[in-house]
């Protein structure tokens, strides 16, 4: 049987700043319903990858295809229309607006049901009338995620949802993303610094180092081989490693 087409296919991507690549020749493929953890030390190129994938940063080389639609060179609004949503690092919410107003704005652009989406984030319900600037960090992250989900994405890119959050809050949010990936057959790329948690909700993981894939493999296997993951963080890859540093194999 032929495998289902990838929801997101990044091939030979190079992207960076002022013509200098921060990510080089990166190839990643994510299937529908699959969660891929994109890991690596500070400055490895994780955010650059996500920004280039959605068109917020022009790619220098390579292609990005989502659900059969080539995205490279497209403006970010067209990327969203192709079914790709980004939850940016640092809480993409409007602080002066209430929770309900933030959701309404996101809903205008989107396809998913508000009530159904809110069902995944019960703590937001009693806060609908509160200004976002008065929410806790975890509540703001929940709202940022809910806003992205209201667009009804088929591909969700999440950049460090856990930034500045208590471990307990992170432990609540990441399993929600896993559940949504399963329920909506949504492909997810999860940039995350909480290694164990990321590997516990992901199907596969890719570790970047200096803009290149240092290690890739099945998340369950990598959880058992923390030595390899940690070595990849420092740019050491083991030639005898059972995991192929290709990043593209599902
Ligand atoms: N606006 C920018 N202008 C110039 N260089 C940048 C810019 N943003 C990021 N970089 C550089 O590009 C490289 C990759 O950065 P990127 O933000 O993608 O890393 P990251 O893996 O997401 O890191 P972190 O975990 O710290 O968020 C780094 O060397 C960084 O200094």
TrEMBL record:
Gene3D superfamilies reported for this sequence: P-loop containing nucleotide triphosphate hydrolases
Single GO MF descriptor: ATP binding
PROSITE patterns the UniProt entry points to: ABC_TRANSPORTER_1 (PS00211), ABC_TRANSPORTER_2 (PS50893)
Keywords: Amino-acid transport, ATP-binding, Nucleotide-binding, Transport
Annotated ranges, domain ABC transporter: 8-235
One GO-annotated biological process of the protein: L-amino acid transport
Family: Belongs to the ABC transporter superfamily.
Protein name, entry field: ATP-binding cassette domain-containing protein
């Amino acid at each position: 049987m032929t495998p289902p087409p990838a929801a997101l296919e990044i091939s030979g991507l190079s992207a960076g700043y002022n013509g200098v690549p921060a990510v080089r020749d990166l190839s990643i493929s994510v299937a529908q319903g699959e969660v891929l953890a994109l890991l690596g030390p500070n400055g490895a190129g994780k955010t650059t990858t996500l920004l280039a994938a959605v068109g917020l940063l022009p790619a220098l080389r390579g292609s990005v295809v989502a659900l059969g639609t080539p995205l490279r060179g497209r403006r970010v609004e067209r990327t969203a229309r192709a079914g790709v949503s980004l939850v940016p690092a640092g809480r993409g919410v409007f602080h002066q607006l209430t929770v309900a107003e933030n959701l309404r704005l996101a809903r205008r652009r989107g396809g998913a049901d508000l009530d159904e989406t809110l069902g995944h984030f019960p703590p937001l319900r009693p806060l609908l009338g509160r200004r976002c600037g008065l929410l806790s960090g975890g509540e703001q992250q929940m709202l940022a995620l809910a806003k992205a989900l209201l667009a009804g994405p088929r591909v969700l890119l999440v950049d460090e949802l856990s930034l500045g959050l208590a471990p307990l809050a992170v432990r609540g949010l990441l399993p929600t993303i896993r559940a949504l990936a399963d329920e909506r057959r949504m492909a997810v790329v999860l940039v995350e610094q909480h290694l164990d948690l990321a590997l516990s909700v992901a199907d596969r993981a890719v570790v970047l180092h200096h803009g290149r894939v240092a290690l890739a493999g099945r998340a369950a296997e990598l959880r058992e081989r923390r030595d390899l993951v940690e070595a990849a963080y420092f740019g050491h890859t083991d030639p005898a490693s059972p995991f192929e540093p290709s990043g593209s194999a599902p």
